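Reviewer 2 asked us to include a model.

Predict the structure of this chain.
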Amino acid sequence: MRVSSPIPHHKARIEIIPLIDIMFFLLASFMMVSLSQVHMKGIKVTLPTGASGETQSKRDYISVSVDVSGTPYFDKTPVDYEKLTAILGKVHQENPDAKVFVRGDRDTVHGNIIRVLDILRSQGFYKIAFEIKSQAGAGVPSAGTGQP
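Predicted model (structure tokens):
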């Protein structure tokens, strides 16, 4: 025998409107976080500190780094100086107005940076900036704009 309950039986419903609200909130949050991230192309080096450094936008740029042992890097790829010359020549043909950020380890030999600057100039790059760590920014990388 079946006894019915005095409370009416309702099927459970899944409300879609709160789910859509949460999805839009997550989408907007992830978009804002991804826009605020800085894409670092260079290798991790110990940047020297400068008092007159200013932060610059780093969109559409080339990163050339020199580590403490004097090994040059194009973006994050280790290369030798001859291969760096060939790569920079090819890049200059594709985009002659490209900006170049030079990152040199604080403890590298001065001659290594000068050699990279000579290669950049020989390939036709004249928009060159040195990447330093700003004292005011407390660890925020800056680019001091000076002609080598």
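The chain has a mean pLDDT of 79. The longest helix spans residues 17-36. We have added this to the supplementary material.
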